[in-house]
Amino acid sequence: MNLAIFDLDNTLIAGDSDHSWGEFLVERELVDVEAYKRANDQFYQDYERGELDIHAYQEFSLQPLTRYSMAELAELHRQFMTAKIDPLRLPQADALLQQHRQRGDYLLIITSTNRFITQPIADALGVDFLLATEAEIVDGRYSGKMIGTPCYQDGKITRLHQWLQQAQQHGFTGDLENSYFYSDSINDAPLLREVTHPIAVDPDASLRTLAEQQGWQVISLRDQ
Fold first, then answer.
1. What are the φ/ψ torsions at residue 126 (nearest 5 degrees)?
2. Could you give the CA distance from residue 25 to residue 5 in angstroms, rounded to a whole number?
3. Is there a contact between 88 and 13 (Cβ–Cβ < 8 Å)?
4. Is a pLDDT exceeding 60 seen at residue 15?
5. Which of 57, 31, 62, 55 lies closest to 43 in space, CA to CA?
6. Where in the sequence numbering do the catalytic residues fall?
7. DSSP strand pairing (129-138 vs 141-147)
8. Residue 148: in which H helix or E strand, if any?
9. Domains of the chain and CATH, by start
């Protein structure tokens, strides 16, 4: 059983789910529209440059969740999936997942975006497991705090190796030998260096340059 690992945002979907969630909140006027949009856009630009303060961003991103019950959040997320995520689905990404599935590979998404946003997306994509940045829940509500190691840059390696120590509980019996990792972002360079088959997917300029230097495969899952 080989491990096929996938970044989510701008890799398996044609956009950033975290940023899209912020846009959804702004469009529904569930936050201070101008201030939230300005901050959301700035954090996304920081991410694209590889300069995101992940702790500051998670504090920003998780705070709106504290205002709602789990039932209210589930309904908001259902609307978010329809309005924002469904249009970002990529048939070629679904086909790639299916290709690995038919080989008998274990499908793992590893994303810096928090689990609240990404778990329903991972479920819709039909992967075996999701590693995401985790949000604290206290007495059945989100506290607005992040817990554990954020699943970002080198943190993805930390989280992956922690998961591998208990992966048999989740149905994976292998290791990183003959492993794959697909990503679009220079932020994922550390994990791309860890796997057997690093694959740049519609990469940003920095990752494309690195991939060319390293001789990594470069593919597109977008309509050409």
1. 75, 30
2. 30
3. yes
4. yes
5. 57
6. 7, 9
7. antiparallel
8. none
9. 3-14+89-219 (3.40.50.1000), 17-87 (1.20.1440.100)
